[in-house]
Predict the structure.
Amino acid sequence: MSSPAPPEKFNWPKPWRLINSSESSQEVLGSQPYEPDPKKFTFEAELQHEVCPSHPLYRVNCQAVARSLEHPDAFIFATDRPDMPVAFVHLTWRVEEGPEFPYTIGYPSWEAFNVAWTAGCVDHAP
């Protein structure tokens, strides 16, 4: 995937933390309303499971890179979409029928994402 990774030594604004590559999916799956196969579960697969064809991230290659410390269903994805290489996504843990969910905000760069979250200019509650 050609998604832009966060810059090295990226200063994550609150409440974000980098997702550890060894992070267990069990901490996420144990509290969800359905039971996906933990052997096949990824945050990327869950995102594609939820989005409908009119959602901006439908069939877009994405990589989960950060997770909110305040909202366990909120993630930052790097995408291969040129106009939205960084996306804030609030997962719903169900298949959605409209483009408004999972709630998504796209950013044109890592810098734009950082500025928006540092300044508190983000409506992150769907």
About this structure: The mean pLDDT is 84. Residues 110-118 form the longest helix (9 residues). Helices lie at 26-29, 43-50, 110-118. Residues 16-118 form one domain.
